[in-house]
Amino acid sequence: MLIREATSEDWPAIWPFFHAIVSAGETLTYPLDLGKEDAEGWWFVPAPSRVVVAVDEAGTVLGTAKMNRNHMGNGSHIASATYLVDPAHSGRGVGRALCQYSVDWARAEGYRAMQFNAVVETNTRAVKLYQSIGFDVIGTLPEGFNHPTEGYVGMHIMHKVL
C-alpha cells in the first residue's frame, strides 16, 4: 500500500465510498445529503492542510485522510484528521496506515498533539484503532450524535500528545 497526496483526479474514486459512508449517517457529522461537488470542496482542504489517499499496487484508491489544524489562532498547535476507508477494502490495515501517517505528518509539521472532536462511541472499530495508536478518550459528549439505528449516542473527544 502506498500513501500519497490526493489530487482532484482521485475524487471520482473517493466519491462513491465518501457518499456511502456520509449518507449512512453512522460515523461522521457531515450533512447526510452532501452532494458530490460540495463534498469535494469539504474534503479537499487547502494547504497547510493535507489530503492523502492510500492506493494498492494497481493504483486503486483504498481510503483517504484529511489532516488539518484543529483550531485557529492560539489553538493552531493541535492537529486533527478524518479518515474514510472504502468498505470494500476494510480489514486490510488501510485505516491504521492512514491514521499512523497522519500522526507522523502532524509530528513532522510541528504540532504538539492531535485531537479528534467527534468520534461516535458506537464506531467501536475506530475507537479501538485510535486507542491502539495512543489516543485517549478525554471526554464524551452524552447523546452528541443521533445514530440512525442506535438513537442518541455519545461522541468522544480523543487526544494524543505528539
TrEMBL record:
PROSITE patterns noted in UniProt: GNAT (PS51186)
Taxonomic classification: Bacteria, Bacillati, Actinomycetota, Actinomycetes, Kitasatosporales
One Pfam family linked to the record: Acetyltransf_1
Protein known as: GNAT family N-acetyltransferase
Cited PANTHER family: ACETYLTRANSFERASE, GNAT FAMILY, N-ACETYLTRANSFERASE ACA1
Entry superkingdom: Bacteria
Statement: the UniProt record of this protein carries the keyword Transport: no
Span of domain N-acetyltransferase: 1-162
EC number: 2.3.1.-
Transferase among keywords: yes
Gene Ontology MF terms: acyltransferase activity
